[in-house]
């Protein structure tokens, strides 16, 4: 009877563990464990009902065959669903735990025994409430309506049309005790459902936080250059486009600088690619440490980088790049390899009214070419 509850509240990781639509072995085993747990809990819930029926049988309210018959029907029902589960028939289903089919079978069983043993209907009616609660949590609105109609129709059929007596066994001390135990065990099961649901909500909340963190990390990785930690080309170009639109709308200055590490190929050839990678990383760290929070720095390609300078007029941009050039030139690069020296050249351009970002970049590139032609370790502007 807890199949519906567990199917809702237990995260179904298997839905995501597949290759070409085929569930992985680990996911299949996880689903089987989930179904086993569901059926074991269901068996425990039914065992409580069997104990209650046995108590009523001892009190003389019903005959012993009623308790034995209910126990046998429960065993057959659980056995069928256990066999279906272990056979893997539902592995590829969305409702792989048979939640709704199991709920339907349980409803039929409980309604049948209300008719067979109306003297102890309180046991089955309270169990119906548990099934309705759990099926409603698993079902869609349409399915929930159907469950409600089925239960209501069954109860009306039994108590209105068939005129079964609606009894609460309290004729003697044993019956009173059994009736009180019926309510007590029902409350215990309701509390269990609440605790279980709370733990699953906590697990789902933690999973959501983990997924949000993972998604944020994926977004960061999609925007960042793995080696330098700066924005990658796609991201820095998008930022440039956004800043160009903002600058033209607000009529504020926006400058860019294309920066190239001088003789970087020679550094790679002379000192090796690992040293070249360290040079790129150290250069990026140096840039981040010496630019403003509003500035955006990204790897344009190879040893070329793009620096976007919002709200920065042309002369100020040139001064900023010259300061950065001197900082890079005065770093102790020999710590990576004896005799290593690194300088940069840059081309600076400032956005003109109605100018496209691609045109702005072309002017910055032309200025960078002029800086290289002038002997490198220079800042040129266009």
Task: Describe this entry's structure for a reader.
With 382 residues, the protein is of the alpha+beta class. The protein folds into two domains: 3-217, no CATH class; 233-381, Alpha-Beta Plaits, CATH 3.30.70.270. Helix content is 66%, strand content 9%. It is built from twelve helices and seven strands. It has helices at residues 3-9, 25-59, 64-86, 99-116, 121-138, 141-161, 173-223, 233-250, 264-271, 273-290, 314-330, 357-373, and strands spanning 18-19, 22-23, 254-261, 296-301, 304-310, 344-350, 379-381. It has a five-stranded mixed sheet with strand order 4-5-3-6-7, with helices on both faces. Strand 6 (344-350), helix 12 and strand 7 form a beta-alpha-beta unit. Helix 1 (3-9) packs parallel to helix 5 (121-138). It is rod-shaped, with a radius of gyration of 37 Å. The model is unreliable at 2-22 (pLDDT under 50).
- How helix-rich are the residues, as a percent range? 55-70%
The number of E-state strands comes to 7
Structural class: alpha+beta
The main sheet orders its strands as: 4-5-3-6-7
For the largest beta-sheet, the strand count, sense and barrel status come to: 5 strands, mixed
Show unreliable segments: 2-22
Distance between the termini: 77 Å
Shape: rod-shaped
Strand content: 5-15%
Write down the domain tally.
2
Mind telling me the C-alpha Rg?
37 Å
Output mean pLDDT. Answer: 88
Order of helices and strands: HEEHHHHHHHEHHEEHEHE
Q: What count of helical segments does DSSP give?
A: 12
């Amino acid at each position: 009877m807890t199949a519906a509850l567990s199917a809702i509240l237990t995260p179904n990781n298997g839905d995501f563990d597949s290759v070409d639509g085929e569930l992985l072995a680990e996911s299949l085993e996880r689903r089987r464990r989930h179904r086993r747990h569901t059926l074991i809990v269901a068996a425990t819930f039914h065992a409580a009902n069997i104990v209650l029926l046995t108590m009523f049988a001892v009190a003389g309210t019903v005959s012993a065959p009623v308790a034995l018959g209910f126990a046998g029907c429960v065993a057959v029902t659980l056995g069928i669903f256990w066999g279906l589960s272990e056979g893997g028939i539902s592995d590829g289903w969305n409702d792989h735990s048979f939640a709704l089919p199991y709920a339907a079978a349980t409803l039929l069983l409980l309604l049948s025994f209300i008719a067979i043993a109306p003297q102890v209907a309180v046991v089955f009616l309270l169990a119906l409430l548990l099934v309705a609660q759990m099926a409603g949590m698993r079902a869609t609105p349409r399915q929930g309506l159907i469950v409600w109609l089925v239960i209501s129709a069954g109860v009306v059929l039994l108590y209105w049309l068939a005129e079964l007596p609606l009894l609460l066994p309290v004729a003697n001390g044993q019956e009173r005790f059994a009736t009180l135990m019926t309510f007590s065990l029902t409350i215990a099961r309701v509390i269990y459902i609440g605790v279980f649901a709370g733990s699953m909500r906590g697990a789902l909340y933690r999973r959501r936080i983990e997924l949000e963190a993972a998604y944020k990390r994926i977004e960061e990785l999609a925007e960042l250059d793995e080696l330098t930690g700066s924005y990658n080309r796609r991201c820095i170009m998008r930022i440039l486009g956004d800043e160009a639109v903002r600058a033209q709308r607000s009529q504020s200055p926006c400058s860019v600088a294309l920066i190239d590490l001088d003789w970087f190929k020679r550094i790679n050839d002379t000192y090796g690619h690992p040293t070249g990678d360290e040079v790129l990383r150290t250069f990026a760290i140096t840039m981040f440490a010496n630019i403003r929070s509003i500035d955006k720095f990204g790897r344009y390609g190879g040893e070329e980088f793009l620096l976007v300078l919002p709200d920065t007029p042309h002369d100020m941009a040139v001064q900023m790049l010259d300061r950065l050039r001197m900082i890079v030139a005065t770093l102790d690069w020999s710590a990576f390899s004896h005799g290593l020296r690194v300088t940069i050249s840059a081309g600076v351009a400032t956005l003109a009214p109605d100018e496209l970002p691609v045109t702005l970049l072309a002017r910055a590139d032309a200025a960078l070419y002029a800086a290289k032609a002038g002997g490198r370790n220079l800042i040129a502007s266009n």
